[in-house]
Amino acid sequence: MRLFSKVLIANRGEIAIRVAKTLHNLGIRSVAIYSDADQDAAHVRCADQAIRLGASSADSYLNPQAVVQAALESGAQAIHPGYGFISENVDLARACQQAGVTFIGPNEHALDVMGDKIRSKNHVATAGVPMVDGVSEPGLSDAQLVEATKNMAFPMLIKPSAGGGGKGMHVVESHDELASQLETARRVAKAAFGDDTLLIEQLVRAPRHIEVQVLADTHGNVIHLGERECSLQRRHQKIIEEAPSVLLTDETRARIGQAAVDTAKSVNYVGAGTVEFLVSDAEPDKFYFMEMNTRLQVEHPVTEEVTGVDLVEEQIRIAAGEPLALRQEDLTFTGHSIEARVYAETPAAGFMPSTGTVLHLAEPAGSGVRVDSGLRDGAVIGTEFDPMVAKVIATGTDRAQALARLEQALDEMVLLGVNTNLEYLQHLLRDDDVVAGRMDTTLVEARLNDMVFDTPSEKHAQIAAQFIHQIVQAPTSAWEYDGFRLAESAPITYRVDYPADEPTRFDVVLQSNTQLLPTGAVNEFVYRDASGVETVTVAAEAPTSQGTRVWLASNNFTGVVLVLDHKAQVLDILATMESEERGVDPQVRAPLPGTVTAVHIDDGSEVAAGDPVVTIEAMKMEHHLKAPLDGTAAIHVKDGQQVRLDQNILTVTGHDADDADDA
Question: Looking at residue 595, what is its pLDDT?
């Protein structure tokens, strides 16, 4: 059988690049698609051909008809959907079939059944796979769900029937909060998946999340490629995954693998898929079906590393009609592999999504290290897409070596221009329970409050100020130096601010015995002071009247500080004086770019300080804004509106101001 000559990749970022690499290895030409936000993205550059589909995600990655039309126009015989977007959308599979384009994924029946959590649970139950207790009937209203669960024990978990990736899940601890949580869950589900159908399950306390990779061809052959441990999660979103799991015995591994195969066979599955299970940490021989993901998983590399099987290649060969060359008894598992997901977010600020432009990128390499990344220097990280920007995978002969290699790789990775979770990942990998393999889905949340993140020191402030003075401003004559006087030379001073919940301020006087010397490598410098020398990476954003944001990576701090020269300091003092005269700021501003998903009050209504007023969604997460003071609210936005960073959302006129006007 002949493979395809050209394949369109209906995705973006690191997964599109990952798929393109296998296509290139097989001698198959790749076609990328993109929206306006991605016109210069890395995946567009790496493909043999690229097609613009529209201005937004809705016009491009989320539009099945446009994707299929692009395949036809480019001459692609097949479409690889990657993961996310419309990878599990039955409409794409149908559109492909109608157009005569091969969909590299399962058949419509499997997508239809497994794409809906309610249908999948009811279907798989008939195959004898163990289930968690719950309510999974389609079409139930909030009131009916409340009634149906009145005899269930708490805690419970609300899940979108059409969802995946942990989005829209809500833990409910009591009946008192069930109704409000259902309302929120429906809103999130509708926005994320276009379907607000919900189901409710008994929440298993401290479970392990273990999934099994399966492959199935069009000739009736189905095999599994072992399991992956995905218990390290935050808000049901996986962070670190590994293969194999240290929890399972050989006997349980065989049973859970067979259960995954039975699940796939029950829907005549074709292609690569993953069957996810909850496993009791206290009783590791017991497992319960959660869902089947009818696509490639984010964490598929760890399975590839321990089996030596290219899962993307297997997908392509299966879609081309080839029978599996692998048999279950032929599979061997070698070593241990662990993956860490790198997100553009700020863990120290409640995991607030981070946006910006990549000013410097250095990705790790070395024995046993693999990086799947959609990053490049100059890439713009916005809020339109998921905040995951890269995956770092480390493989060793055993788990201890894989952990050590991954920790070193994360230490070597440098990404300046956006905040990331790299330091947070290192905290997790050093955790005693993680090192020992004692993990469950609650561990990450339990550890967060005790984590202490690095903050800048006086030395970092000196480096940032020296960089601005010596590299950015680079005065060409004595007349341009800040602080120059005809009679004498005054000390050159800068202010360096570190924004955080508890902001830090440094007043820096440049010292004559300090130097910042370029090494010849991009953005790399040697900083020398009285205590010695240190190699640092430094880059700056464009200067503004408020100062210049300087990013730096050193031995014990990576992040951004704001450097204010003399002019910026004067402007800041004036602004502070004005703010103090005005009192509490009556304006509520957007903390980041996003979409208004809910306005909780009416225009002109009375609010109290702390009342929830508006909800903004950014990077698949909701951010709740509150009233700053008691008074009357004037709303400046509406549901569905896109807002920019620092945009005025609403203004509260305080009662004191009303009294003054009356007087």
Answer: 84
Mean pLDDT of 388-405: 98
Rounded Cα distance, 182 and 158, in Å:
7
Contact indicator for 614, 588 with CB cutoff of 8 Å: yes
Query: Sorting pLDDT into bands at 50, 70 and 90, what band is 490?
Result: low
Each residue's pLDDT tens digit, 321-337: 999 999 999 999 999 99
Q: How far, in Å, are 594, 629, 652 from residue 611 at the CA level? A: 21, 9, 12
List, as own/partner pairs, every contact residues 181-187 make where C-beta atoms lie below 8 angstroms and the sequence separation is at least 24, other chains included.
182/142, 182/145, 182/146, 182/158, 183/142, 184/622, 185/158, 185/160, 186/142, 187/597, 187/598
The mean pLDDT value for 360-371 works out to 97
Indicate the range of 81-85, 452-456, 466-470, 513-517 predicted with least confidence: 513-517
Q: Which of 266-275, 472-481, 587-596 has the lowest mean pLDDT?
A: 472-481
Q: Supply angle C-alpha 47, 50, 55, rounded to 5.
A: 135
Residue-level length of the chain: 663
Residue in the structure block whose two tokens are 């602080």? 483
Q: Is the pLDDT of residue 342 over 50?
A: yes
User: pLDDT tens, 46-90?
Assistant: 999 999 999 988 899 999 999 999 999 999 999 999 998 899 999
Q: Find all residues with CB under 8 Å of 550, minimum gap 6, and list them.
A: 464, 467, 468, 538, 539, 540, 541, 560, 561, 562, 563
Mean pLDDT, the chain, rounded, equals: 90
Q: Encoding tokens for residue 593?
A: 């770019």
DSSP 301-323: HHHHHHH---HHHHHHHHHTTPP
Average pLDDT over residues 608-624: 84
**416, 523 in Cβ contact below 8 A?**
yes
Q: Please, where are the H alpha helices in 349-452? A: 399-412, 422-430, 432-436, 443-448
CB-based contacts of 479, cutoff 8 Å, min separation 6: none
**Rounded CA separation 405/336 (Å):** 11
The terminus-to-terminus CA distance of the chain in angstroms comes to 88
CB 318 within 8 Å of CB 271: yes
Q: Which of 385, 364, 382 is nearest to 373 (CA)?
A: 364
3-class secondary structure, 539 = strand
pTM of the model: 0.84
Q: Is it the case that residue 442 has pLDDT exceeding 80? A: yes
- Give residue 600's Cα distance to chain centre: 27
208, 284 contact by CB (below 8 A): yes
Residues 435, 433: Cα–Cα separation, whole Å: 5
Largest CA distance in the chain: 91
Find the radius of gyration of the CA atoms of the chain: 27
Using alpha carbons, list the distances in angstroms from residue 223 to 141, 178, 216, 265, 326.
39, 41, 6, 10, 8
Give every CB contact of residue 480 below 8 A, 6+ residues apart in sequence.
Answer: 473
User: Would you say the C-alpha torsion 187, 191, 192, 195 has a positive or negative sign?
Assistant: positive
